Amino acid sequence: VTIWPIPSSHVWIDLLEGVRAKIRKKCALVDDYIFYPAHAWPHKNHETLVDGFALLCKHFPDLKLVLTGGNFASDHPARRKIAKNGLQESVMHLGYRSPLEIRCILEGAKALVYPSRFEGFGLPVAEAVIRGTPVVCSDIDPLKEVGGDAVSTFDPEDSGSIVRAVEKVLLDAQFRDSQLNKAQNRKSLFSAGPNALKTFNLYRELGGQKPIEEARTCLLYTSPSP
Question: Which of 12, 106, 183, 208 could bridge across to 150 with cysteines, CB 3.0–4.6 Å?
Answer without folding.
Answer: 183
